[in-house]
Amino acid sequence: MRYNERELLSLARQPAEKAAEILMRVPKKGSVLKKRLVKLVVNFLFYFRTDEAEPIGALLLEHCRITKEEENVFSISFIEEPERKYCFECDSEEQCQEWIEALKRASYEFMRRSLIFYRNEIQKMTGKVSPLK
């Protein structure tokens, strides 16, 4: 997928649905946990060095798995490359669960399934095929 760097930077500056400084490990050999500002905007997860305004990376949250690894730790891996795993360690179990839920709701796939579900529910209640017309 292609991205325009300027548009991504603009998106990274938008208000976040969720943001926090948490420990993160990228899938590089020898990578260690480092404190990063992690910011969820629409279906992108941006990560920043804590003292910088521009992101050092972004993850598009499509075709990915968000997995609870261990206490206070979750990971993001992509279906095409399951061995490539980004790990995040939160301050608490509660914070970890909040991140997992927010990330799972952020994908286009989740929004599409929700739209279909609610359309069907409205149709059941109103009897109309397209109640919005």
Automatic annotation (TrEMBL):
One of its GO terms (biological process) is receptor recycling. It comes from the Eukaryota. Residues 15-108 form the PH domain. PROSITE patterns: PH_DOMAIN. SUPFAM superfamilies: PH domain-like (SSF50729). InterPro entries: Boi1/Boi2-like, PH-like_dom_sf, PH_domain. CDD domains: PH_PLEKHJ1 (cd13258). GO terms for cellular component: cytosol; early endosome; recycling endosome; trans-Golgi network. Pfam families: PH (PF00169). This is Pleckstrin homology domain-containing family J member 1. It comes from Syrrhaptes paradoxus (Pallas's sandgrouse). The gene is Plekhj1.
